[in-house]
Amino acid sequence: MKSQGNFNKQSKNKLIDNKRLDALYYKVSGHINNARNNIQKSIDIEIVKTYWLIGKEIVEEEQQGLSRAKYGKALILGLGQKLKEQYGKGFSETNIKNMRQFYLEYQANRENYSIRYAVRSEFEAPDFLPNLGWTHYRALMRIDRLEARAFYEIEASRNHWSARELERQIGSLLFDRLSKSKDKKGLMKLANSGHEIAKPEDAIKDPLVLEFLGLPESHRLVESKLEEALINNLQQFLLELGKGFAFIARQKRLTLDSDHFYADLVFYHVILKCFVIIDLKTRKLNHADLGQMLLYVNYFDQEVKAKDDNPTIGLVLCTDKSNTMVKYTLGEKGKQIFASKYQFHLPTEAELEKEIKREVKAIKEQI
Q1: Residue among 140, 203, 220, 176 nearest 354 (CA)
Q2: What is the pTM of this model?
Q3: Cβ contact 298:287 at 8 Å
Q4: Please, which residues have CB within 8 angstroms of residue 47's CB and are 6 or more apart in sequence?
Q5: Are β-strands 313-318 and 245-256 bridged in parallel, bridged antiparallel, or unpaired?
Q6: For 109, which DSSP code?
Q7: Which of 208, 329, 203, 178 lies closest to 276 in space, CA to CA?
Q8: pLDDT one-digit tens code per residue, 197-209
Q9: Strand arrangement of the beta sheet that strand 208-209 belongs to
Q10: CA distances from 329 to 14, 288, 319 (A)
Q11: How many Å apart are CA 89 and CA 83, to the nearest integer?
């Protein structure tokens, strides 16, 4: 019996040791992962600084050339060949041209960047720029409109977008979708401060772009399939919805007497401090859809939200809508319930321009 007791005691100690070992492992691995991330960030920053200085040297050398066009082309080609021999393919002619362009683009707007990011501007390297990687800047340099480029820089830095996420937001015309209903003052605020959310309408995008679902734009699509696809791609859906959204539930049951209703998707907005109910429609919006959402919003406001929560937001996602019908159906509730279109392909500027003209026309007809 005594030996059995010792065995049990040894087993217990071994179990405790394993738990301690696991706890220690997670702590240590966390430090290692943080260190690796910080090292990678430092590498990215140093690469950007180096490429900036390379671009600066090229531009200054070009300015001393007698025939700038021919001299510059030969200079970049020759420099690229020498650097590739020493440092590898990262210094191709194309990449060196990008370095030159990087310096020209951002040096020209250096004062604006220094003010925006509140950093001293006397450095030789671009310490006044947001801490983004080279692949970020290659994407940003393709944006001609400075206000749009400034917006994407702020959002990419603030939200820690990967280069791939930045490319996707540029391709989905995020800046244009957020700015299409803003006046000149609102547009400049968007460019200088990024996407700030102070009221419910600030959190709503129209249209929403769901190209990551890989679904066909077909009249045969059913709502349950759309909902399932969104849940399966929840991380990307949250990115498309924008900052502040936290997922709560799907098919949330609401019981009124003996009747049951089901809200498709429920989120909580941590900035606005309110619930957000999303209802999915695979067709054009009608007044009954808005009435159903009104029921959901009123129920949440009376039965679910806490005292310190703000009024619930309702959002109906549909393939098409009439802004006039939305206005007259909702009345004052239009500040709390919204309808947005969605599409399964990245928009073109022409499509967005057409949508803006349609909205402007609708507004003029209501005046």
Answers
A1: 176
A2: 0.75
A3: no
A4: 133, 134
A5: unpaired
A6: T
A7: 203
A8: 999 999 999 889 9
A9: 208-209, 337-343, 313-318, 274-280, 259-269, 245-256
A10: 68, 9, 18
A11: 8
- Contact assessment for residue 209 and residue 347, using Cβ atoms and an 8 Å cutoff: yes
Provide the pLDDT for residue 200. Answer: 93
Residue type, 170: I
Backbone phi, psi, residue 356, to 5°: -65, -45
Nearest to 131 by CA among 194, 55, 43: 43
pLDDT confidence of residue 182: 76
Instruction: Report pLDDT for 121.
Output: 43
Q: Residues 314-352: pLDDT tens digits?
A: 999 999 998 888 888 888 888 899 999 999 988 887 877
Query: Measured between alpha carbons, how far is 56 from 60 in angstroms, rounded to an integer?
Result: 6
Cβ-based neighbour number of residue 338 at 10 Å: 24
Question: Each residue of 206-224: pLDDT tens digit?
Answer: 889 999 998 887 667 889 9
The 10 Å Cβ neighbour count of residue 172 is 23
Closest CA to 214 of 348, 345, 347: 345
Mean pLDDT over 296-305 rounds to 95
Which residue type sits at 176?
Answer: D
